[in-house]
Design a protein that fits this description.
It comes from Persicimonas caeni. 27% of the residues lie in helices and 28% in strands. It is α/β, with parallel strands linked by helices. The strands form three sheets. The protein has a nine-stranded mixed sheet, with helices on both faces. Strands 2-5 form a two-stranded antiparallel ribbon. The chain is globular and about 65 Å long.
């Protein structure tokens, strides 16, 4: 079985990111970058599937040359080889999906695992667009995955509960935090990762025009929250909710 999994290089979500004075972009200078946390679940699931069924895990990233660090992290966890589609452009979800679609056509994996979204843009679009471009079935928000006889049974979180979806392979599965607990890279794994191959391509090599269809035109911080207020009793609380907050 061949499993393809994706990783994205994002600014550390625990760091405070500033907005440029004109609001045109985020200022990431001096920020630490890490693997998107939700992609860690996708990588871990890919490795577990390989351990159960045998085969190969290919990890793919679309981004700057520095994203080899995140690929190496996945290789240290247990992935077998990496592919970096190198670009410094600020890509929208559609461009990323079209790039990944060409990689999938070349690699022909049985399963594609991804995080449900990336923490920097919070769009939750790439996997769905990729499914449409490839005409592959998809199972999003997976908390359980079982594969047998060319099919995947995927337990999913949905509004109001859960359901199980059965999809024919090849298929795209996006992971949530309940799916697994990502392993830490061991020292032997880190040493082995240095010798594992990473193939570098460009969007042009894949024949993909990455001109964005969606552009962020302005960033702004949310309004500051007003300070809370201590009330003396329930009657005062109800009065304020009714007459000031207008929620009753």
């Amino acid at each position: 079985m061949k499993i393809l999994t994706t990783v994205k290089r994002v600014a550390d979500p625990d760091m405070k990111i500033k907005i440029a004075p004109d609001g045109s972009q985020l200022v990431t200078e001096g920020a630490e970058f890490v693997m998107n946390q939700m992609d860690e679940w996708g990588v871990e699931e890919a490795i577990q599937l390989k351990e159960e069924h045998g085969g190969e895990v290919v990890v793919v990233s679309v981004g700057p040359s520095a994203a080899t660090k995140e690929i190496r992290t996945a290789l240290a966890m247990g992935a077998d080889r990496g592919i970096l589609v190198e670009t410094d452009a600020d890509l929208d979800s559609d461009a990323v999906a079209r790039v990944l679609a060409e990689v999938v056509k070349e690699e022909q994996p049985d399963v594609i695992t991804m995080g449900k979204l990336s923490l920097d843009t919070d769009r939750n679009q790439t996997a769905q667009l990729l499914s449409a471009y490839l005409d592959y079935p998809q199972a999003t928000y997976a908390y359980n995955v079982e594969i047998a006889d060319g099919w995947a049974s995927v337990g999913r979180e949905i509004d109001g509960g859960t359901n199980t979806k059965r999809v024919k392979l090849p298929a795209i599965i996006t992971a949530i935090e309940r799916l697994n607990e990502p392993r830490y890279a061991s020292l032997p794994g880190i040493m082995k990762a240095k010798r594992k191959p990473i193939d570098t391509k460009s969007p042009e090599d894949l024949g993909v025009d990455i001109a964005p269809k969606v552009k962020a035109v302005q960033y702004e911080l949310p309004p500051e929250r007003e300070a809370g207020e201590i009330v003396e009793d329930v009657d005062e609380l109800i009065s304020k909710l009714k007459n000031e907050a207008k929620v009753l």
